[in-house]
Design goal:
This protein is mainly alpha-helical. It contains eleven helices and five strands; from the N terminus they run H-H-H-H-H-H-H-E-E-H-E-E-H-H-H-E. The chain has a domain of 129 residues: Outer Surface Protein A, domain 3, CATH 3.90.930.50.
Length: 272
């Protein structure tokens, strides 16, 4: 890196710090790095960008986490967002990735993080799970999918089935998918009680869907995701549940298989 490149890199880093942490900017540094406008000082010009930059990114986070914003309230969510943006400034050319680290940041910075699990605040657990769900929805909306290709029907062989590429299996401590959709429907749900919830989140034909599943179904789909083997996963489920393999296979064929094929859980290996 030559002197000019080094100077540009330093200036760019200073500008980023000035935008995300306005209170830390030294007045002398502003005057030495920026020119004044025709009617405004250098500091006043910078202040315009400081306000608009944070507002734009905060608005972007509100759009990516609408249910989290509803749950916290606009003012508290804005405080969380500003703290997050200072700790995790945008590191991508696209704002699509802005909220990528938000759920983990909430976990890492929870005020009761030093307490044992049984003494931690339940509402924080809920907020972390809710943010994780919203992030997964947002990620899948633009992930690589199966659009434009054929989907398996009832005639497909079980040995050929694998989970489709634009699908996520999710486990939460709270029914956050229910809460999210209540908010999106314009209602004002109360914080739900802690109840383990399991979900399949997927995109089919450019539409994102969430399907609640049982713990046993979640376990089965997790096995299929790990080994790509429906029949082997059914055998494992039978052994773990203490049931006969033929009983589990019958449940799969008569109750579960067709609805899941229709929903887009699976694709055929030869079609990937």
């Amino acid at each position: 890196m030559n002197v000019r490149e080094d100077r540009l890199d330093t200036l760019q880093r200073w500008m980023l710090d000035a935008l995300i942490a306005p209170g830390s900017v030294d007045a002398g540094a502003v005057a030495s790095n920026l020119l004044p406008g025709p009617k405004l000082s250098a500091a006043a010009c910078l202040a315009i960008y400081q306000r608009s930059y944070i507002l734009r990114l905060r608005k972007c986070l509100e759009e990516q986490f609408p249910a989290s914003c509803h749950a916290l309230g606009a003012k508290l969510f804005a405080d969380f967002a500003d703290e997050y943006l200072r700790a995790c400034p945008s590191d991508s050319y696209t704002l699509y990735e802005l909220g990528r680290r938000f759920p983990q940041w909430l976990e890492d910075n929870r005020p009761d993080g030093d307490e044992p699990p049984e003494k931690r605040e339940s509402w924080i657990d809920f907020m972390i799970d809710l943010a994780a769900y919203e992030r997964e929805l947002y990620r899948l909306f633009d992930a690589s999918g199966h659009e434009g290709k054929s989907w398996p029907d009832a005639s497909a062989d079980d040995d050929a089935l694998v989970l489709q590429p634009c699908l996520a299996l999710a486990e939460y401590r709270y029914p956050v998918a229910w809460y999210y959709h209540e908010v999106r429907a314009g209602r004002s749900p109360k914080f739900p009680a802690a109840v383990p919830s399991y979900a399949v989140i997927l995109r089919r034909d450019f539409l994102t869907h969430t399907y609640p599943v049982t713990r046993l179904h979640y376990r089965f789909l997790s096995l299929v995701n790990e080994n790509g083997d429906v029949n082997g996963s059914l055998e494992t489920i039978a052994a773990e549940a203490g049931k006969r393999v033929d009983e589990v296979r019958q449940s799969w064929r008569n109750e579960v298989r067709q609805p899941w094929l229709a929903a887009g859980f699976f694709v055929e290996k030869t079609g990937i």
